[in-house]
Here is the input.
Amino acid sequence: MMKRLINYFIEGLLYIAPLTITGYIIYSVFMFMDNLSQEFLIKFFDIKIPGLGVLTLLIFLIFIGFVGRTFIAQPLKLVFKNVIGRIPLVKFVYSAFNDLFSAFVGKEKKFNQPVLVKVNLSSDLEKIGFITEENLSLLDEENKVAVYFPHSYNFSGELFIVPRANIRPINISSSDVMKFVISAGLTGWEKA
Here is the structure.
């Protein structure tokens, strides 16, 4: 029984220690910065501004975040990409998923042109898709575009090359169209 209590005590310490240590460090840095800035202001300007340590602490944490991202995170990201790039199968899978996710949420969003595509010229049957590439000169196709058709209730889809004449732009945000398609039309549209 005593051994179990000691184990619980140690586990409790392990759970709370990171938060407590972080809080203590932030409090200590705040007090240090507040005292330092107050002494500086009193010595040179003969004024006291209460709470200046909060502003100083915020600026300090932003600076630390900038340094961490610029000089620590970016080099580690490059090392990770270089290691992944040397393993053939892993490189293929990683780059495919990386491209797919960046197409949805990255800086180079590709799913930003929702369209309706007539899939059968003898009927009015249309599918909702997204233009992903308009320049298909690589495929020697001038009047066609690449359209991605996401599947409903799934994180997959199909890519079709279709004539421009068969597509019609949709004047709705691409994220709303994607939700509509993935939910099989159950999400509906926002009523204005």
In short: Strands lie at 114-118, 126-133, 144-150, 157-163, 167-169. Residues 2-45 form the longest helix (44 residues).
